[in-house]
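SEQUENCE-TO-STRUCTURE ENTRY
===========================
What this section holds: a protein sequence and its matching fold, both as plain text.
Question of interest: how does this chain fold, as expressed in backbone structure tokens?
***
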Amino acid sequence: MPIFIGSLDLSLISDYLSSTMKNKIPVRKIVAIIGFGLLGTSLGLALKDKGYERIGWSRRPESRVQALKNKVVDKVFDTAEETVANADITVICLPVPMIIDFCAKFAKCWKKGAVVTDVGSVKEKIVRTVTPVLSRKGVCFVGGHPMAGSEQSGADAAQRDLYEGAMVFLTPAAKKSPRQVSEVATLWRRAGAEVMEIDASIHDMTVAHTSHVPHIVSAIMTLTTLGDSKSRAVREKGCAGGFRDTTRIASSAPQMWREIIESNSPAIIKVISEFEKNLKDFRNNIHKREYQKVEKKLQSAKQLRDSWIAKKR
């Protein structure tokens, strides 16, 4: 029997409040992580308790078992088809060539209105190739690239705070959907990252300067210093902190970097030309004993790097 207070029916109030609460509780979006390497595993850990239901898939069954055991995701599927079919947002954490192949192969499996993004370090080729393939199925692709990582690879190197304070570039196609771009941006912010939206071609030139050519320079420095078998033993004893810090990224996965260089070769060639000019100028200054000019360049480099470090802090 309903209880009345004045003219109020408490049973009706209860029904109203229950309905209101249900309407205000947001439905958790389902995020699928494809690939449990360093970036995918770190993302899964970063999104724990951040308002998403995390599902995932990896080609190797043991990787799926390990991801579930380590609470990287809440659920895994045995097939990629089933995984993406259940996802509102899919983050493809695979090497660049595999991102393109994956989207082409499973385009028909995503539900209409789903959003797909990636972590590939080259964007123009991926965005140009993948966007039309998925848009024909009613799926939105938003290119993404987190500027985070390590010379180590694989799930064992993953860190929950890998993306904390990191920059994530988003490179949607020209005909973008603001809502879908916002969804991807929100995901990365919840993982701890900062987000910037830029054109894919600008992205590729930027990372050629900041990531791709520095890796090549690191590799060349290592080969120059340690590549001579006759002098290696003595040179190894002379290598200390400066050599270690300068060449750290030369320990990264060679196959992955070959694929990156191949995918962004036009931009990389332009940046190598810039580097060659600066190196040649430096060499000429030393050859001509123009040590004031050498010091000025060293001072300029110090100021530029110190300013960048201060902004990062």
